[in-house]
Amino acid sequence: MNKDTKQTEQSFGSEIGTEESLFEKCKNIIKHNKLAFFSLIVIILIILCAIFANVVCRYNPYTQSLKDRLLAPSFAHPLGTDELGRDTLTRVIFGARVSLTIGLIPTLISMIIGTILGLIAGYFGGKIDFAIMRLADIMLAFPSLLLAMVVMYTMGGGLINIFIALSLVNWASTSRVVRSETLSLSKKEYVEAAKSMGVGNATIIFRHILPNCIPTLVVLFTLSIPSAILSESSLSFLGVGAQPPTASWGLMVVSAKKYLFTQPVLVLSPAIAIMIVVLAFNFLGDGLRDILDPYLKEQ
Amino acid sequence: MVKNILKRILISIPVLIGVVLIIFIMLRVVPGDPVTTMLGEHVNQTVIDKISKEMGLDKPLYIQFFTYISHAIRGDFGTSYRMNRNVTGIILDAFPNTVRLAVCAAVVSWIVGIAAGIFAAVNKNNILDRLFMGGALLGVSMPVFMIALVLQYLFAYKLKIFPVSGYETAASMVLPSIVLGWNSAGSIARMTRSNILEVMQEDYIRTARAKGLLEFAVMKSHALKNAMLPVVTMMALQISSMLSGAVITENIFGIPGIGRLAVNAIETRDMPLLQGTVIFTTILVIFGNLIADSLYSILDPRIRKEI
Amino acid sequence: MDNILTIRDLKVAFQVRGRDAYALDGINIDIPKGKIVGIVGESGCGKSMTAMSIMGLIKSPGRIVGGSIDFCGNELTKMGIREYANIRGKDISMIFQEPMTSLNPVVKVGKQVMEAIILHEHISKAEAKQRVIEIFNEVGIPEAEKRFNSYPHELSGGLRQRVMIGMAMICKPKLLIADEPTTALDVTIEAQILRLMKRLCEESGTSIMMITHNMGVVAEICDYVYVMYAGRVVESAPTKILFNETAHPYTSGLLKSIPTIGKKQKRLYTIKGNVPNILNLPKGCRFADRCDLTQNICLSDRPKDDYITDSHMVSCFLHKRIEDERSCIKIKKYS
User: Fold this and answer.
1) Quick one: average pLDDT of A222-251?
2) Cβ B203–C98 below 8 Å, yes or no?
3) Residue environment code for A123-139, b if the CB has 16+ CB neighbours within 10 A, otherwise e
């Protein structure tokens, strides 16, 4: 791009900054990120559905009714019933609880672990940095699904263990990003100034460095949720994740697999549910990245 | 350059040892007796002790570890508890199937991903670009098993073009390769597109245009090489995700590869086999990362010279 | 006059929120054969935009909305893509400001230079290589043969700019556009590069359009000068006349802001204020709010291009060509 266009763009930019109120700014952001905004609405709706699953659903996700086995979609059962006569729609909605908790909580835990380690490594440097980063290298070297499988093997299936497995597996990439941000931030003048005035390390980290990492972390968090959801469904699909009769999307797919050719809707509903949630989080993450964080964009 | 690659190999040795150590500890320490985990709760203590002794699990952990490492260096990963066979042999039998699957999938994902990425970049922001990038995002967002089941339903059951499962014939490899390559194709396409668009803003692209090159030539001889550098690295890194994905793909299509072995090992609670497959796979991944790094330093003259 | 390039009333606009913002608003430039023409102005005044218009490389959302660019009898603004590509690099070539980023980092410099000549003269690779080595020698690159296989990052800034000059001159173009070719270089190298460009162009009869903000460069090598301000040419004249009989207050401001050794100055002159935003141009003269001599008419009307002598154009209300009076209002009065 040549100089003149840059110049004009800059002047457009400053104009936008001065002329518009906060409300208009928000309106503009939404206008330029329609997809992300739409995704946010979808995610909120799904979260609401998951929380109020008891209210939304007419059936109980665990009540079996052998006379209603494998019903085709109908008015009473919009997505039909499974091989044990349970309403598929109800199970999909209850499955959202599992997937969202799996998406949010282990991701949050691994982000916290990764952030703390990344801050320590980047800020203090030296041997601690070396040790943490080599550990991160090792964790990143594992194919994450296999590592999670090993954890599940030693601890057995079940949701709590998935929590632990995913929290342990995914912190390394966060710690790398946080470390490199910390490194560049601690070279900034205001941090150096604070150091020279004798401000304590903890204060510098929490007042100057961490707040500046937050936008990156928010984006990273949003984009990590889908991979956690996918991991859970894969683990459950392989039979080492959630155990029956839990209404987990991965588990639903595997138990309906036998009926793929006779009643595809049974397989497709949970699979499409996974896809929608994953897509929505991906879109939201992309949008947030565009809005918040020029740093990640470059990666 | 050679020095740099040697350096990287040296760095990956401690990573390798760390990997083995972590798997080793995970399988033995948490949370109870490994033999009980293997055999189940209701086996009497004498049997447990006997097997412990047979497998050397009664010795202190560090001795077990060094014994394992020293055997592993010689290519001995222990003996499978269920199959009563050398783990290395079992893995090497399964390995060609995984390699074949991964290579086919890699080729699929590279060709489709790069072509789609370039195509989308050239048609920036018009309907074709949106369509392709929507497809790529769909590729990234779909669980592997869903793609597998949908393709099985369409091509094997409805259209009957390809077999539902199996691994012997070329036709039976088509669906698994697409399934396994799908996710990678999506991310490669996205990365290719954004890199090309970024590179097209560079000053040297303007220089190339000023020289009188037409857009096609600018793309071919100036933009692609720069844009592809990171993509090549990513392609090598995809080996890792392919191997993870292969676990699911192999299980759905009944291909007796490494991933199938790992799941079997978990189902039959065969610890030595699980340990062997995970360590073996991780070594492959580390090797893939090594290739990725080295490729980058071979391809980029700026890095090549610094070393 | 024997002009190689004639720009008439050229307008380039960007569409911003449904309305056009003019980056170039009706400029006229003539470049005579074999001469060096300087284009001077602050950043953002439209200098580079003029160059990119001639090259046909304006980036969207910018576009040419009016006027003509005549190059040796060919109308460039209406030319097809392929035809244009044949002219670029062959008849019109360009040197950019940043030699660091203007060369492709992963392609050998020799190959980058060779590309242009293979494309335009359809000669063999071996021949092309020979020509590249020749031109490398000519532009003063030591060990030309070895440098052929170097990558850009292995060369110093001065050498890279020499490579760029070689690339631009290899097809012996009729017009060379140099967009601040020495701004990124050391002062010592600047003089060498300028001399080199001047020599090469004299040898091959190439005209140069020298874009710069440095009045010293203008004084040293240019034959004619165009002073641009906010998308307009405000004054143009042969270099000597421009320096001695400066007519436009903006030009005189530019000249006064050059430090002079030996002259006692309390403080270096600066032109107050900033370049106006092209989205929000004043109604009258664009320079009015920064000018020391603003009159009422300057705020309400736009000045026209007036030729105060046959070769001296100025766009300012202080000057009117009055045929029966021998001279116009001299700049000396207020400088």
Assistant:
1) 82
2) yes
3) beeeeebeebbebbbbb
Spatial separation of the C-alpha atoms in residues A207 and A184, rounded to whole Å: 16
The secondary structure of residue C275, as a DSSP letter, is P
B230, with CB counted inside 10 A (0-12, 13-18, 19+), is middle
Pick C90's closest partner by Cβ from B207, B212, B305: B212
pTM greater than the 0.80 cutoff: no
Interface check for B232 against chain C (CB to CB < 8 A): the answer is no
- Within 10 angstroms of residue B40's Cβ, the number of other Cβ atoms is 8
User: What is the tally of structural domains in chain A?
Assistant: 1
Q: Over the stretch B11-55, which tens digit does the pLDDT of each residue have?
A: 888 888 888 888 888 877 655 566 766 666 666 777 777 777 777
pLDDT of A199 higher than 50: yes
In this predicted structure, the answer to whether residue C88 has a pLDDT above a threshold of 80 is: yes
Measuring CA to CA, how many Å separate A116 from each of A104, A175, A207, A221, A227? 18, 8, 14, 15, 21
- In terms of average pLDDT, the best of B279-293, C166-180, C182-196 is C166-180
CA–CA separation, B85 vs B265, rounded Å?
A: 13
Mean pLDDT of B254-278: 86
Chains meeting C at 3+ CB pairs closer than 8 A?
A, B
Which residues of C fall below an 8 Å CB-CB distance to A?
A: 14, 16, 21, 23, 43-44, 46-49, 51-52, 59, 62, 97, 179, 277-280
Helix, strand, coil shares, percent, chain B, to 5: 80, 0, 20
The CATH code that applies to domain B95-269+295-299 is 1.10.3720.10
Rounded to an integer, the average pLDDT of A10-39 is 64
| Nearest by CB: A3 against C21, C48, C279 | C48
Closest CA in chain C for residue A1:
C59
Mean pLDDT of chain B: 81
Structure tokens at A149: 């499988």
Determine the residue of chain C that is closest to B201 in CA distance: C59
Summarised one tens digit per residue, pLDDT across range B143-161 is: 888 888 888 888 887 787 7
Instruction: Determine the pLDDT at residue A112.
Output: 92
C96 or C258, which is more confident: C96
**Closest alpha carbon within chain C to A6:** C44
Q: Please enumerate in sequence order all residues whose Cβ is within 8 A of that of C179, keeping only pairs 6 or more positions apart, or say none.
A: A2, C47, C48, C51, C94, C95, C96, C97, C211
Percent of chain C at pLDDT > 70 equals 92
Query: Which chain B residues have a beta carbon less than 8 Å from that of A272?
Result: 146
Q: Amino acid letter at A265?
A: V
Residue B229 contacts C where some CB pair is shorter than 8 Å: yes
For chain B, where do the domains classified as CATH 1.10.3720.10 start and end? 95-269+295-299
CATH code: domain of residue A218: 1.10.3720.10
Structural domains for chain C: 3-91+171-330 (3.40.50.300), 92-170 (no CATH)
